[in-house]
Write a structure and sequence with these properties.
Elements (H helix, E strand, L loop, with lengths): L6 E7 L2 H13 L3 E9 L15 E9 L5 H15 L3 E4 L5 H12 L3 E6 L10 H11 L4 E4 L2 H9 L7 E3 L6 H13 L1 H8 L4 E6 L8 H14 L3 E6 L5 H10 L5 E4 L8 H6 L2 E4 L8 H8 L4 E4 L3 H6 L6 E3 L4 H12 L2 H15 L4 H19 L2
Parallel strand pairs: 1-2, 1-4, 2-3, 4-5, 5-6, 6-7, 8-9, 8-11, 9-10, 11-12, 12-13
Length: 380
């Protein structure tokens, strides 16, 4: 089915993470065409110039998504769908108006509709009106492709038949993070020295936003830092809480916290290569691809139980799951790994084995199998 199938995926903006997935998916579906509504969005500064776009795509509008009228994008989208005339349309979200135009176009033209989502029941506060709107979209799609087990369960509550859901597994470019981290680890001591870091480095990578729970991480780290003078906390990223976090470090006199500005995905492996522990303490997190990155790099991970990745990637053999609201638990988990090099080594080795099943190539294969099952179901 795949070789001749005209498949369109709608996506709001370009992304280096999704480009790796689509690259491999196009091996099974050469007629894959990704329609991006715009090039970028204001809250992220990804440089996609080096992304692997070895598949067909269209960018409907240049520049950031927020600078364009959603109706204008929707009109352009309808014209593009008419031009491409796909047999299958994949819609990843409900929150932006052009996705609804894509839904209505597909229903009107009797196309196979697939809902592709990472959302979970606990990733954001739920309001009945939003849940009702989601159900209107999900229940009208013929098949679902979920990033993980939690997103599959949530999709079923929104009206998708559980038998019609394929779990793809969220993925990233494992090899890039593994090789980049290994290369950096050779110069680990000098890189740490250049950044002002001490012997043991706890790393956070991501946006500095309220849902990431960094203020509580800083409070937990203060307890650790007063007891262990050889530990540093490295925070890589930017966001709306940047000034507030700097102020917290100064006013609470939290020692050995180093802030580093946002870096592109190609530069992130260096930071994993010098890290001894990675932590994702988020209050809300549909998945948390940084967990994949850290595991690929062989860094022991401490992950919030709110992150979708915790359900599918983390077990006692691959990492530690924490309650992000419990400052003491965050401290205890980090202290445990700081004091146990053998446990860090065990988790590192097991994490790399586990994450191998979540490569972009493997995820694309599972997604392709889901699409083919959807075709069999739809044309039965």
């Amino acid at each position: 089915m795949g070789l001749d199938t005209r498949l369109v995926i709608l996506q709001a903006v370009t992304s280096p993470y999704k480009s790796w997935l689509y690259h491999y998916l196009s091996e099974d579906f050469p007629n894959l065409h990704v329609v991006y509504f715009s090039e970028s969005e204001s809250i992220r500064s990804w440089d996609t110039s080096q992304a692997d776009y070895n598949y067909n795509y269209t960018i409907l509008k240049p520049g950031p998504l927020e600078s364009h009228n959603p109706i204008a994008i929707s009109v352009r989208l309808i014209a593009e769908l008419n031009r491409l005339d796909p047999e299958i349309v994949i819609i990843p979200e409900y929150v932006y108006l052009p996705y609804w135009f894509g839904l209505f176009w597909s229903l009107f033209n009797k196309k196979l509709l697939i809902f592709f989502s990472e959302s979970t029941a606990i990733d954001n506060p739920k309001k009945w009106i939003k849940e009702w709107i989601k159900r209107q979209m999900v229940s009208r799609c013929h098949w679902g492709i979920a990033q993980g087990s939690r997103s599959a369960a949530y999709m079923a509550t929104l009206g998708m038949n559980p038998s019609n859901i394929t779990i793809k597994g969220y993925s990233t470019n494992n090899q890039m993070y593994a090789t980049g981290a290994d290369a950096a680890s050779v110069d680990k001591a000098s890189i740490k020295l250049g950044l002002g870091l001490l012997e043991i480095v706890i790393l956070y990578v991501g946006r500095l936003a309220p849902e990431k729970n960094i203020p509580r991480l800083l409070t937990a780290f203060k307890t650790i830092a007063t007891e262990n003078l050889a530990v540093s906390l490295l925070i890589v990223g930017n966001g709306p809480l940047e000034s507030e976090l700097h102020n917290q470090v100064m006013t609470e006199n939290i020692p050995r916290v180093v802030f580093h500005p946002f870096v592109q995905s190609t530069d992130v492996p260096k930071f994993y290569g010098i890290a001894d522990i990675f932590i994702l303490p988020s209050l809300r997190e549909p998945w948390g691809l940084v967990v994949n990155e850290a595991m690929s790099a062989g860094v022991p991970v401490v992950v919030s139980n709110r992150a979708g990745s915790a359900a599918d990637l983390i077990s006692p053999d691959t990492g530690i799951i924490i309650d992000p609201m419990d400052t003491d638990e965050i401290s205890r988990s980090l202290k445990f790994l700081i004091d146990s090099p053998s446990e860090r080594l065990r988790l590192s080795e097991n994490a790399r084995k586990k994450i191998g099943h979540f490569s972009s190539k493997n995820s694309a294969k599972r997604m392709a199998e889901g699409i083919e099952r959807a075709q069999t179901y739809y044309y039965r």
